[in-house]
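Tip: read the tokens left to right.
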């Protein structure tokens, strides 16, 4: 089973690299195509919106085939998109390649999370999800800096060609190592959509948008904040982002370990801690050492929420978790886009480069409020119904795909 998780992790690594490496290569790409940096920024925005749209769309199409086959098709789509980006003769085709690759992103993580959870015992589900997401966090420590270095040294097209090659490795790994889990009985789009009638599923997704939005409010503007406020050189931004990636890596592991035992207390602690640290970032951003330590903490606390939120969606969407799981991945990207926009608004209003940290703190605090409300609703529902059969609140987590 560990080899099957490794195959999913390789796919996650490739997807994480292509999502974030673009930020370090925007000047080179803009220069090659003769477009402005803001115009080149559409390659980031287009990708994020493609994830939001592609997650439910591709997952809905995937209800007709087995999960293993769908994962293989998604890695194929991802590879084609990155190959198109590497070879694109025009900016519009480059953007098209980014969007094609992004369509695979949400569904891959959404379906992959369900498959990862089904590969292990119920008590280890969040840990298995966290293992797959390790690929995404390691991408920020290794893939993104390496891809940026390659792109700056020998050309950005080589970076995207290398990511396409990673997609082929991921595809072959899934084909060889992931077991052919049976398609869940009664896997129909109508049944998958019914999961969204559960208020707890919607609340978990709202927590995802606001909680991870808090992280991206600060990180989107990390370069001007660190160079303009903390006094770092332009070249230091790369290793500061590596520091953020290291925080993500450990936060993800800790979150995966604790979510199987104390899911809601973990969410309270991570979201509350994130709100406090982001608020403090407005002060620590003025000191190089404190700023670096804060970036590490933002990555750790932010990503500690990912395994518990993904597991909560899987548990609450009992019996039809695939679409809900994929849409929750889209919710992360919706949070990214929303918070980057809000952060830009406060900077444009003249509040300075540290102002997005206040936006992030407010978003994280709102996510904490939703977590407390969600738990209160759950307790009230349990007390009122005394655990009736089939209640989504009290239903056990599915053990294997064959039991859905």
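Filled-in amino acids:
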């Amino acid at each position: 089973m560990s080899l099957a998780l490794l195959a999913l992790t390789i796919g996650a690594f490739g997807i994480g690299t292509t999502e974030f490496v673009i930020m370090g290569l925007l000047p080179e790409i803009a220069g090659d195509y003769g477009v402005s940096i803001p115009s080149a920024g559409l390659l980031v925005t287009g990708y994020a919106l493609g994830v939001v749209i592609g997650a439910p769309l591709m997952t809905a199409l995937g209800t007709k085939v087995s999960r293993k086959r769908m994962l293989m098709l998604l890695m194929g789509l991802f590879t084609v998109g990155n190959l198109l980006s590497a070879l694109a003769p025009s900016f519009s085709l480059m953007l098209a390649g980014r969007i094609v690759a992004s369509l695979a992103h949400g569904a891959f993580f959404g379906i992959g999370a369900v498959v990862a959870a089904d590969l292990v015992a119920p008590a280890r589900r969040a840990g298995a999800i966290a293992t797959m997401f390790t690929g995404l966090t390691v991408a920020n420590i290794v893939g993104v800096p390496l891809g940026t270095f390659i792109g700056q040294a020998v050309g950005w097209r080589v970076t995207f060609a290398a990511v396409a090659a990673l997609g082929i490795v991921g595809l072959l790994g899934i084909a060889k190592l992931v077991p052919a889990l049976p398609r869940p009985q009664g896997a129909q789009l109508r049944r998958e959509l019914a999961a969204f009638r559960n208020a707890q599923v919607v609340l978990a997704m709202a927590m995802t948008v606001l909680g991870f939005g808090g992280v991206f409010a600060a990180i989107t503007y990390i370069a001007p904040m660190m160079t303009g406020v903390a006094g770092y050189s332009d070249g230091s931004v790369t290793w500061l982002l590596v520091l953020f990636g290291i925080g993500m890596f450990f936060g993800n592991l800790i979150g995966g370990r604790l979510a199987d035992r104390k899911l809601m207390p973990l969410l309270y602690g991570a979201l509350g801690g994130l709100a406090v640290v982001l608020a403090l970032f407005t002060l620590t951003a003025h000191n190089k050492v404190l700023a670096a330590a804060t970036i590490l903490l933002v990555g750790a606390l932010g990503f500690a929420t990912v395994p518990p939120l993904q597991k909560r969606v899987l548990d609450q969407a009992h019996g039809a978790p695939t679409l809900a799981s994929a849409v929750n991945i889209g919710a992360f990207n919706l949070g990214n886009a929303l918070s980057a926009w809000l952060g830009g608004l406060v900077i444009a209003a003249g509040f300075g480069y540290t102002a997005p940290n206040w936006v992030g703190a407010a978003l994280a605090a709102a996510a904490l409020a939703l977590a407390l409300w969600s738990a209160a609703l759950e307790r009230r529902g349990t007390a009122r119904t005394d655990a009736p059969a089939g209640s989504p609140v009290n239903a056990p987590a599915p053990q294997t795909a064959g039991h859905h």
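The CA atoms of residues 250 and 300 lie 6 Å apart. The chain has 16 helices and no strands.
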